[in-house]
Structures are given as C-alpha cells and as structure tokens.
C-alpha cells in the first residue's frame, strides 16, 4: 500500500501579523501529492510553468543509445547536441563501426542529418537503416524480443561529404542504424546525428502524463488496454472484436474512443497509425482499420444537458480501402484548442457487422478499428492547465485571511484560484492495474499478481466540507471559503489566451489568524417568499467568543440580489450603525466591539428571483492597516423560529417569467409624450445564462420587432419599444402581441400580452 495523500507539509514562515501566521508554498514543494497533468506543467528554475509543445523538433535530443559495435561509452556523444564531441570505433574493422539509436517512440520524420569530423575523411562506404520498431516473429507466432526488422536501407559508396542529409517525407521511424560496409583505415569520427520530426507528441504516455482514454461502444474489445495507443510502440495495438456483438436492428453500432489529454492544448495535427506490427504477417489482413470515421473535439465546455459540448473536426467517408489497404491516416488542421478528442467509427452497417462475412465485403475481420498509435501534435503553450493541492492541515482551527500569489504574468495570461475548506478528512483507497488504469477493488483482487498495480491511499475531504468557491480573480483576495477551519484545499488554473505566452508561478501564500469568534452562525427569516416580490427579512447572527478570540465590530451582508438595510439590534436593543453600501449588499459598523456571546438582528428589504438565494455574511475587525475577515456559517442561530440556514426559497412551480407589465399609453408620434412603451418583467429560477427573448407580433402572428434576444439570469428586466419595426418603419395604429420567453434547461416558458398603439 502506498500512502500518497499524507497531509502536506510546506515551508512555513511567520511574520508580524495580528495573532497570525503565513503559509508559503513554493514550486519546489509541489510533489506527487499534488494532482496535475505531468505533461503540461514543469519546474522551470524556481517557477512552475506550463510546458510548451513544439513542431519540427530534433527527436535525437530525447533518444538513447540502443547498441554500438564498440566504444559504447562514447557512443551517446552523437546525440548530445554537441558537435565538438563524437564517437568512433576502437578499430578499423568495419564490423565494429556501427551504432543504433532508439528514439523511444515511432515518429513521422522529415529529415536525417549526419555530421562527420571535417578535419578528417568521412565514412566512405556505409549503410543507413531505418526501423519502425518491429520485432521478428518466428514460425510459432512468437515475438523475438531484442530483434529488429529494418524496413528501409540507403547504401552509400565513395562518400566524401562530411554532412549527409536524407529527406524522408514523414516516414515512420523508431530506430536508426549506421554501419560501415568495408575496411576504413581512417576510423572516421561521427560527431552528431540530428533529425527533424513532426514534433512533440502531446498524447505520448497519455495516462502517466495526466490524461485518460475510455472506449464507449456496444461491442466487446479484445484483451488488452486502450492505453497502448499512446505508448509510442507500433507493435502494440488496440482494436475491437466485430464478431462479439452487433446491432440487431436497422441502426449502426459504433466504436467510440474518448480521449482526455489532461489539459487544453493547441492542436494542429492528428495521426492514426494502424500498422499491426504485433501480428504475424500472414494474419495481418484480418486486422482492419476503419471503413469510415469522424473526429470530434471539445475544450471542456459543457452543453445545456450537462455533457461535453463536441465540435466535429473532420469526417472520412466510407471507403473499403480504409479497412485493409490504407494503414496510416494523418490530418492537418488550422490550429485549435482541445482537451478532449473523440474518434467515432461504425462497426456495423444497417445491422450487419462489418466483416465476418456479414457485410457486402464478405471479409473475415478478427480486429476492427485498429489503432497502433494515436498521435496528437500542436505548437505552443497549453491554454488551460489545472493544479490541485492535497488536503492542507493548518494544525488547528484557524481563520483563513487572504490568498496571495507571485510570479510572471504576461498579457493574456491569468492564474485563477479556487478553495474549499472543512474540519474532517477521510482515507480513500484507489486500486490500479499494471497499466495505471483505476479499477474496482473486486477487479483488483481477481487480477493475477503480475497484472496488479499499486493500491494508493489518499486523504480526502470528509463530511461538512464546502463546495469549491468562486474564483479568486486577483492576488490579495480575501478567503472565499468557510472559515475558521482546520483543513483547506486549493485548485489553480494556469490560463493563456495565446499559444506563445504562459505564466510562471513563483510563490503562493495564505494568511491565517486566530478566529474573530469561535463560532458565528447566521440564519434568515422568513425562509420562503413569493418570487419577484419585495419582502422584509431579518438576518440573525449569533456569535460565541472565548478569551482566544479577537472579537469584531463590522458585519457584511451580500447576495446575488440587492439588499436594502432597514435597522439593526444587538441583544434585542436597537443600535445606531454606520452604513456603507456595496454591490448587492452593505457593510455595518457597530457602535462597539463584540467581545462576548451576542445575538445580532439585521432587518433589510430584498426581492428574490431565484430559488435558494443565499445571504452571505462576514464579520470583520480592522486594526490599523490589518483587516481580518471571518465568514459566518449558515445554521440555526435562533431556535425559536422555524427553519435553518441563510438561503431564501421560493414556491416550486414551472414559472420562469412573471410580473409582465406595460406602463403608459403608447402613442409613438414623436411629440415627446408616451413615445416609448415601457415593458417590465421578472425572470425566475434561472441560475446560469439562458436565452431570453422579447418580441412584438402582429395579429396575424408575424414577427415585426425583436426587442431582446440575449442570454440572462434571474433578475428584473425593463425594455422599451419606440414603435418602430425591424425594417425601421413606424408601426400603424392597432393591436399587437407582446411575447416574453425564457428558455430553461427542460422547457421554454412564455407570457404574452395585447398592447395597443394609438395616435
């Protein structure tokens, strides 16, 4: 068992802060206990920075020596990027002058370049061999490990060039070998081998770098794991068995691959490599690719039904050649940003399974949708990368003040931070197979020992934790999650709207102090009120203090709707307060410090439009330049009244729009009197932006004027109509239909009224 989620420890410093400390997080402290895509973030000096993807790269910088005929200790110098050092054999024996370089993955290559020492003769007679990484398969259909099949060779005779270039036109290469063909007394010095490849494969080692792949299809996959599509090896592959299950009706059955890249990357090229190199050659014609397919992408945006919003990227029409004749597919695009990719292809046509003698092809297929490698290329920094901390233990019940961060933030970049907090944690076990895929405990027990992966135990938020807060837009923002609390967790988005720029985080700090009150509970009354009607409410705040607490003098009330202050009472006595109005709320300064157990009552007016409208509250203490704020927890502040918490509910019904009213007699004759019709209405129960329209129709049902067509939330709306039609002509006197409509997640609600135009 591996414990990876132990409560995180950091470098903590304290300085002169009112009864407080400062926790400082440096990039060097960020370890494997933090959750982030390893392929998208890296430590750049003392800063944490997104990792750039490059095109047209030299893959030999990340290659390794596979073998050499002699002098193996100096052989790696041909791929070290230094043309002042190199390799040569120990003798002039041509059988010792050879070297093999493994790129670590199969890549589309455009060029190879060999540099020989210009101060002495170059190699004269030699062969350059290229391999896709394919091993020999013996007559028993067993792969012979350690062997290689070289699928292309180029022989050189009487060479006198010190720099040799070979153009390859995106040929697939994994291993390169250069070998002498005859005795050469000079023992030429090979200084460097360089290349030009497609670029950095974003999808390489997908799972270990923070991504995932899921196969969603009504078919049975052959043994294996789809992660082999991202291992850089053409000898491993993923496909489905088209003979297992198929559609019995008139519809098609589809293979559906869903790929999560782990971050939002710039993408401009996708390669589907489908060479079945792990299958004996005489059986390879049974393993097919795609009759047709489509590729979709998503940047992570959510559609109204709560699922990912997909955009079709490209479509390959049906072609029997795609099944067996064509093995590799590549597509170039205008750059776009994507976190998710989707490969969709049919495994049956009109109820007939492709292959197995059931289709019009009458071809036996033992594998369909074969993908040896799914490669993704792009250029630039990721547009969005998310970093999440483990549970942070403050070693006590502290009031968390504000969050600061430092670093380099070029124009177009932003660090977006969220938090959550709580007082309880739980252990959570995760089970993995040998490929790193998470499985159920029962599945883990059934795996043979060699196929089992580790069991990891993490510490996760327990009961009573808050949801993730709204974003901290700027450094120095006050803590937005409930406090005081013992535990907290942070989540950060590294954002960039340009592929050529990225931010760099050097430090993040959290201030925490002794609580202003050991307990501060808030409750609203009444709990329920009709939507769209102004109502008087009382907010009850009960505080409990001990000698350890600092006390408070200011109270903040704020909501998603305007709050209008009426009066305040402390322990049932009316008090004079200093009022400061803020956006959708107010700040009250009490006449004296609250330093003991106290009940505070605050009366105000508001008009709720949305169910579960929360009245947020904080207590504050300002001493000199120091400001300490503590959030008030919702609860049962007053046992004598019914209910619990600080949210206002409205009666449950299907109304999304109400209180439609028109004001004044409408006479649009440009005399300055009643020339504009005022239209007022309320939108209810709409928490996220949804389409709202205000339209004018004639009595024949024809739309004559569009007054509003936009996204909006619950609120009061006021629209004016000047009497003009969409064609900019003035309407004629008569009766018209006013229609207001709000499109919700499951239905559209509209209200109509007759209006009269007079002259």
Features:
759 residues; Jelly Rolls; 6 domains; six-stranded antiparallel sheet; disordered N terminus
Give a short summary of the structure:
It is built from two helices and 53 strands.
Q: Overview of this structure, please?
A:
The chain is mainly β. The chain has six domains: about 120 residues, Jelly Rolls (Sandwich), CATH 2.60.120; about 140 residues, Jelly Rolls; about 170 residues, Galactose-binding domain-like (Jelly Rolls); about 35 residues, no CATH class; about 130 residues, ntegrin, alpha v. Chain A, domain 3 (Immunoglobulin-like, Sandwich); about 100 residues, Immunoglobulin-like (Sandwich), CATH 2.60.40. Helices cover about 0% and strands about 50% of the residues. It has two helices and 53 strands. Strands 2, 3, 25, 26, 27, 31, 32 and 33 form an eight-stranded antiparallel beta sheet that branches. The longest helix is centred in the middle third of the chain and has 6 residues.
């Amino acid at each position: 068992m591996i414990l990876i989620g132990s409560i995180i420890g950091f470098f903590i410093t304290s300085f002169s802060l009112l009864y407080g400390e400062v926790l400082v997080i440096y990039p060097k402290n960020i370890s494997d206990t933090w959750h982030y895509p390893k392929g998208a973030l890296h430590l750049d000096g003392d800063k944490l920075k997104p990792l750039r993807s490059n095109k047209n790269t030299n893959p030999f910088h990340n290659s390794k020596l596979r073998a050499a005929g002699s002098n193996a200790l100096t052989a790696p110098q041909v791929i070290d990027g230094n043309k002042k050092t190199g390799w040569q054999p120990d003798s002039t024996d041509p059988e010792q002058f050879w070297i093999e370089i493994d790129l670590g993955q199969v890549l589309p290559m455009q060029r190879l370049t060999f540099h020989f020492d210009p101060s002495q003769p170059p190699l004269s007679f030699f062969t350059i061999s290229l391999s896709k990484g394919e091993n020999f398969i013996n007559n028993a259909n067993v792969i012979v490990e350690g062997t290689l099949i070289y699928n292309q060779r180029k022989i050189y005779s009487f060479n006198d060039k010190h720099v040799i270039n070979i153009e390859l036109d995106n040929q697939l290469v994994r291993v390169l070998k250069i070998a002498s063909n005859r005795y050469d007394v000079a023992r030429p010095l090979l200084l460097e081998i360089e290349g030009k490849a497609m670029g950095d494969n974003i999808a390489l080692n997908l799972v270990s770098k923070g991504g995932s792949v899921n196969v969603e299809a009504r078919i049975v996959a052959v043994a294996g794991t789809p992660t082999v599509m991202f291992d850089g090896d053409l000898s491993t592959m993923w496909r489905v068995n088209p003979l297992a299950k198929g559609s019995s009706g008139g519809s098609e059955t589809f293979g559906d691959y869903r790929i999560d890249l782990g971050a939002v990357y710039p993408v401009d090229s996708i390669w589907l490599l489908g060479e079945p190199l792990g299958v004996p050659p005489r059986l390879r014609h049974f393993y097919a690719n795609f009759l047709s397919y489509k590729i979709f992408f998503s940047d992570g945006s959510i559609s109204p039904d709560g699922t990912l919003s997909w955009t079709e990227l490209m479509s390959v029409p049906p072609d029997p050649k795609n099944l067996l004749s064509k093995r590799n597919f590549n597509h170039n695009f205008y750059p776009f940003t994507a976190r998710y990719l989707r490969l969709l292809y049919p495994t049956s046509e009109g109820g007939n399974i492709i292959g197995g003698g059931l289709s019009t092809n009458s071809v036996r297929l033992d594998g369909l949708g074969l993908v040896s490698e799914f490669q993704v290329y792009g250029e630039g920094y990721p547009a969005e990368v998310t970093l999440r901390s483990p549970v942070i233990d403050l070693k006590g019940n502290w009031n968390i003040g504000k969050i600061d961060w430092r670093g380099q933030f070029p124009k177009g970049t932003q660090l977006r931070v969220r938090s959550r907090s709580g007082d309880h944690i739980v252990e959570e076990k995760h089970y993995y197979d040998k490929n790193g895929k998470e499985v159920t405990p029962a599945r883990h027990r059934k795996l043979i020992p060699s196929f089992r992966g580790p069991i990891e135990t993490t510490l996760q938020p327990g009961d009573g934790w808050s949801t993730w807060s709204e974003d901290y837009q700027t450094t120095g923002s006050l803590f937005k999650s409930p406090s005081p609390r013992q535990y907290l967790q942070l989540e950060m988005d590294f954002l960039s709207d340009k592929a050529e720029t990225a931010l760099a985080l050097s430090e993040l700090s959290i201030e925490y102090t002794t609580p202003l009150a050991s307990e501060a509970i808030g409750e609203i009354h009444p709990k329920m009120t009709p939507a769209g009607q102004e109502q008087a409410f009382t907010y009850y705040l009960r505080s409990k203090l001990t000698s350890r607490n600092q006390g408070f003098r200011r109270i903040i009330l704020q909501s998603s709707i305007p709050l209008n202050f009426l009066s305040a009472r402390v322990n049932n006595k009316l008090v004079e307060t200093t009022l400061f109005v803020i956006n959708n709320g107010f700040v009250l300064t009490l006449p004296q410090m609250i330093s003991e157990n106290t009940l505070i009552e605050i009366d105000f007016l508001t008009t709720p439009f949305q169910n579960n409208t929360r009245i947020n509250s904080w207590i504050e203490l300002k001493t000199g330049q120091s400001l300490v704020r503590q959030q008030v927890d919702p609860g049962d502040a007053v046992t004598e009244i019914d209910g619990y918490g600080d949210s206002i509910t409205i009666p449950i019904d299907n109304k999304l729009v109400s209180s439609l009213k028109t004001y004044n007699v409408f006479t649009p004759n440009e005399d300055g009197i009643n020339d504009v019709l005022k239209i007022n209405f309320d939108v209810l129960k709409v928490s996220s932006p949804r389409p709202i329209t205000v339209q004018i129709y004639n009595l024949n049902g024809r739309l004559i004027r569009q007054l509003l067509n936009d996204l909006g939330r619950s609120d009061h709306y006021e629209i004016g109509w000047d009497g003009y039609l969409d064609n900019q002509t003035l309407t004629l006197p008569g009766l018209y239909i006013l229609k207001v409509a709000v499109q919700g997640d499951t239905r559209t609600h509209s209200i109509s009224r007759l209006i009269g135009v007079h002259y």
